[in-house]
Design a protein that fits this description.
The complex is a heterodimer of chains A (438) and B (306). With 438 residues, chain A is an alpha/beta fold. Helix content of chain A is 29%, strand content 23%. Chain A folds into two domains: 101 residues, Urease, subunit C, domain 1; 317 residues, Alpha-Beta Barrel (TIM Barrel), CATH 3.20.20.140. Chain A contains twelve helices and 18 strands. Classes of the chains: A alpha/beta (438), B alpha/beta (306).
């Protein structure tokens, strides 16, 4: 089976390539990348990518697929459908399912569901500790053998610094990445949004930036101590960006990610988006997320971190919740928002606004996540799996949550006008999403 | 004469004109409570429901008396927080109440924003009787009425609010209401109980009770929730009352005609000494009387002309 993709602008940060190229795909792998017209099209299926950008398939290294256990929120099938619609050919699924992904059996179940769905690749993340209870280490070698790309106690941070040290050392033994959900639960206390003037005005209990920063500092210090590879999830504060920047400068084996909502929204989003939101606040539960939306200064620092490389990756922390969890009073609402179908559109704003080049953005949404996780993809080199995303940079569209493939609707961007969209996605050479002719 | 709004959710979105209208109306209604027969027929046939998710005696009773003096029918529903956890959602409770066609729902809830959530869903008016740490607008309105009665005005005054500002919806509503009316508000308390951004709300911030009450026209002491001690917001009641309890010696720092206020219930000997609470500067019981008048005014202005 031969597929020729012609006429596109190929942007591949892995080879520092940004030029018109034709791509030949044979048996699910990239067989040739040549100047336009250099590869004969006779006898081959042709996909016309004129006017489009062809990039290595986007990889979101932080999503919650909710299966097993909370299938009313999302399943591997609906979550990976949302992924490919958003341009993602690979996702890393966090282990806080029910049961927790702390054994090979759960990992294999998730991978079976992903194969059955046949959409995006799923890279399960195993738990750091049994049941994510922060007490006993999981069997990392077995988790890795079953297919886990990393371990994390996402959503249930490891409060015991000694356990975190042991987890890093033990993970290093098996060359497994540790992903830290950096949050001090004592400092967070019963907070429900960022602690600052807005939380004071709304009478909502605050989560200080320090609740994240003290744990970022702890974990980068432990990474330096142990030499283990550490990845900090969902960085949201200026202080965290600075701590990580300095740790990298000292040579600590640390990477990190942020999410589109942290470089797009501030804590004012809790008030909603109506003109009188400040006076008559909406208490929008779709803006309730952990870590919380921060201040304009944090947004600027996160953007700068993405620009200068202190932040390696963009991952949306897709966290589906149903009306049961979200159509309630703010304090009672679950934390999290869905992002797979808006992540690229929101991230492209950084390109349109001149903060990132397109190549830098694709590095942060594909090449870097692939490298950090140690999974295939992130490059359009000959021999690599043919995971590709085709992007129409000019396509204007309106976020409409009711048209989402995700099973959940908890998105604070309803009605937003975005420019740029993934119009096709291929996984292993197979077209898993396309909306080329609209 | 009516408020052009369905709900009263907070002081944040009330204009000075609206506050003035409510206070003027309340002042004119006070006389009804002095009559031998304390009742006018204005809201006859209207239904006022109080829905309280937090224990309260005086606020709920104050609303109920206010409604009854205007001849409205009142129904009170108190939901224990523990049963609400297991029971129906707030939205379902509200929908059921809505189906019984009340004219106004008065709600107190431990979650900030709960009244706003209901107001968006219900056709009837919603009055916030206290939501979490957010607002308690009728308390602020009765406080404003009490200050205005004592001083003859609200602009250009210095008002001190002392105590646990962090957990106080009374403080938030008063800061907003007083600054809207042109008063200067100085808040004082230990740093553990002063949330960030109070200056953005319009208040000045100090850690000194003395500084707060110096030249003050009114001093508002907040109730200290005793469980805050176990949460390390303070060390001991002894130290708290030494530094943040209002005693007779503080009153000499304030203006000669200072008034001392407290939203109740009092922790005598903690945030306020008995001598001050019962002394000549105290207007604490006038606040309670004005509470009925202000709530009558709010009900009248929201549903009187429908």
């Amino acid at each position: 089976m031969h597929l020729l993709i012609t006429g596109g602008l190929v942007v591949d940060p892995a080879q520092n390539l940004e030029a018109p190229r034709d791509l030949l795909i044979v048996d699910g792998r990239i067989a040739a990348v040549e100047l336009p017209g250099a590869i004969p099209s006779e006898g081959r299926e042709v996909l016309d990518a004129a006017g489009l950008v062809v990039v290595p398939g986007l990889i979101d290294m932080h999503v919650h697929l909710r299966e097993p256990g909370e299938e009313y929120k999302e399943t591997v099938e609906t979550g990976t459908r949302a992924a490919v619609r958003g341009g993602f050919t690979g996702v890393a699924s966090m282990p806080n399912t029910k049961p927790v992904n702390d054994t090979a059996a759960v990992t294999r179940f998730i991978l079976d569901q992903a194969r059955a769905a046949g959409l995006a690749r799923v890279h399960p993340v195993g738990a750091i500790s049994v049941g994510s209870r922060g007490e006993a280490l999981c069997e990392y070698a077995e988790l890795k053998a079953a297919g886990c790309a990393a371990v994390s106690d996402d959503g249930r941070p490891v409060m015991d610094a000694l356990l975190m040290r042991r987890a890093l050392e033990y993970a290093r033994t098996f060359e497994l990445l540790v992903i830290s959900h950096a949050e001090d639960l004592h400092l967070r206390a019963d907070g429900v949004m960022h602690e600052g003037p807005v939380s004071t005005r709304l009478g909502l209990r605050g989560i200080p930036a320090a609740a994240e920063e003290v744990m970022v500092f702890r974990d980068v210090t432990l990474a330096a101590l142990t030499g283990a590879r550490l990845h900090i999830a969902h960085v949201s504060t200026a202080g965290s960006v600075e701590i990580i920047r300095r740790a990298k400068a000292r040579g600590a084996p640390v990477t990190c990610e942020t999410a589109p909502h942290y470089f797009t929204l501030t804590d004012e989003a809790v008030c909603g988006q109506t003109p009188d939101a400040a006076l008559n606040p909406a208490y929008d539960t779709n803006a309730k997320v952990n870590p919380p939306l921060r201040t304009a200064a944090d947004v600027a620092a996160v953007q700068e971190g993405l620009r200068d490389g202190a932040i390696d990756a963009i991952a949306c922390d897709h966290a589906p919740h149903g009306l049961l969890e979200k159509d309630v009073e703010f304090a009672a609402a679950a934390m999290g928002l869905i992002g797979l179908e808006t992540s690229l559109g929101l991230s492209l704003k950084l390109v349109h606004e001149g903060i990132l080049t397109l190549g830098q953005l694709i590095a942060r949404m594909s090449t870097h996540p692939a490298r950090i996780l140690g999974v295939p993809g992130g490059a359009l080199t000959v021999g690599a799996p043919a995971d590709l995303t085709l992007i129409d940079l000019e396509r204007e569209w309106t976020v409409a949550v009711n048209a989402f493939a995700s099973r959940s609707r908890n998105c604070p961007f309803e009605g937003w006008q975005l420019t740029g969209k993934a119009v096709a996605a291929l996984v292993g050479g197979r077209l898993v999403h396309q909306e080329l002719d609209v | 004469m009516e408020l052009r709004r369905k709900d009263l959710l907070g002081m944040a979105d009330l204009t000075a004109q609206e506050i003035g209208l409510i206070l003027d109306t309340a002042a004119s209604l006070k006389e009804i409570s002095q009559r031998p027969i304390k009742k006018v027929p204005t809201l006859r046939g209207r239904t006022v429901v109080t829905l309280f998710y937090e224990p309260s005696t005086r606020t709920r009773m104050s609303f109920e008396i206010a409604a009854k003096r205007l001849s409205a029918d009142t129904v009170n529903l108190t939901v224990a927080a523990s049963s609400a956890v297991k029971g129906e959602t707030l939205a379902d409770t509200a929908a059921n109440l809505q189906a019984m066609q009340p004219d106004v729902l008065i709600i107190r809830h431990q979650a900030s924003g709960a009244p706003h959530y209901l107001a968006r869903r219900l056709r009837c008016g919603v009055v916030n009787a206290g939501d979490g740490l957010h607002e308690h607008p009728t308390q602020a309105l009765l406080d404003l009425l009490t200050i205005r009665e004592a001083k003859g005005r609200l602009d250009g005054l210095k008002v001190a609010i002392v105590g646990d500002i962090l957990h106080s919806r009374v403080a938030r509503s008063n800061i907003l209401g007083l600054t809207t009316m042109g008063s200067r508000v100085v808040v004082a308390g230990p740093a553990t109980m002063l949330p960030p951004g109070l200056t953005a709300l319009g208040a000045e911030v100090t850690h000194s009770l003395e500084e707060a009450v110096r030249d003050a026209d009114a001093i508002m002491m907040l109730r200290l929730q005793l469980e805050r001690m176990g949460q390390n917001f303070l060390s001991t009641l002894r130290e708290y009352s030494t530094h943040f309890g209002l005693a007779p010696r503080h009153l000499g720092l304030a203006r000669e005609d200072v008034i001392v206020m407290h939203p109740g219930p009092l922790n005598r000997g903690v945030e306020i000494s008995p001598e001050v609470a019962d002394g000549p500067y105290s207007v604490i019981l006038e606040q309670v009387t004005n509470g009925v008048a202000v709530r009558m005014a709010v009900l009248l202005l929201l549903i009187g002309e429908r």
